[in-house]
């Protein structure tokens, strides 16, 4: 039995789709934890066991982890909480449930940066890495998917790209760093969940085919969209003021600012690309398949 948290989110929906295709042949049953079962895809109906509720709740986890062999663990960031409460606080009930039900394997979504000098001052990333340590401390076999920024973050800029030809971030325009498509994160998770021959604790980097700077992204978007797109760098203090003004928790906002500062200082750099760490989807392909339909509506 494989339990999937956040099955209707960006990563979870891709993972659920993959497991619906592959799990039956592998003799695996699927169970999902979801607040609103109506949001599950039609393909899942009647084919997965559904536990309704939040995976922050001990009672929900107790029902969901009973008889489970493996769990996909994804914490949805909550901008009303502190970084600690968002990740570690949210995960504490799961630690008890994993131990109580003897779950053997967990695959979690985390971040790059472990072992670097920046890891202790990287805001949300630091909080995510602390969550990994808590899960690993239960004794389960654990694989943390160490992810860079997602291509999908640019979907939040679709209106600005359409209307102004501009996208923003806070890193240097020439700062190259890995990025990845969420579908490729899901593919890596599916492989680990279906083939549980691994033991112990480790991080699994999931990197796009090449490092890209904001200027690279602008050039490729211009080519793929057939219209000029340029990058504007937003100062961190301006970003902080804007987010606090939108009502986000001030500690959470500081976590975002610290994360972005660390990324601009090279937090995501330094992981070697190998056949095992490099995913399939390039930015050009993602633009054509995902960003272009969102912008050119």
Which fold name is given in CATH as the topology of the domain at 2-150 and 179-208 and 271-279? Answer: Rossmann fold
Helix proportion range: 40-55%
Major sheet description: 7 strands, parallel
**Helix/strand order, N-terminal first:** EHEEHEHEHEEHEEHEHEHHH
Structural class by SSE content: alpha/beta
CATH class categorisation of the domain at 2-150 and 179-208 and 271-279: Alpha Beta
Q: What's the rounded overall pLDDT mean?
A: 95
Number of strands: 11
Q: Helix count, per DSSP?
A: 10
CATH superfamily of the domain at 2-150 and 179-208 and 271-279: NAD(P)-binding Rossmann-like Domain
Shape: globular
Neighbour order of strands in the largest sheet: 3-2-1-4-5-6-10
CATH architecture of the domain at 2-150 and 179-208 and 271-279: 3-Layer(aba) Sandwich
Kindly estimate the percentage of residues that lie in beta strands according to DSSP. Answer: 15-25%
Domain NAD(P)-binding: 8-194
Pfam family, one: NAD_binding_10
Protein name: NAD(P)H-binding protein
Report on this structure:
This protein has helices at residues 10-22, 58-65, 83-101, 124-136, 158-164, 182-194, 214-225, 236-245, 250-264, 283-295; strands spanning 2-5, 30-34, 49-52, 70-73, 105-111, 141-147, 149-150, 166-169, 179-180, 201-205, 230-233. The strands form three sheets. Strands 3-2-1-4-5-6-10 form a seven-stranded parallel beta sheet, sandwiched between helices. A two-stranded parallel ribbon has the order 7-9. The chain has a two-stranded parallel sheet with strand order 8-11. The chain has 297 residues and is of the alpha/beta class. It has ten helices and eleven strands. The mean pLDDT is 95. It has a domain at 2-150 and 179-208 and 271-279: Rossmann fold, CATH 3.40.50. The longest helix has 19 residues, at 83-101. It is 41% helix and 16% strand.
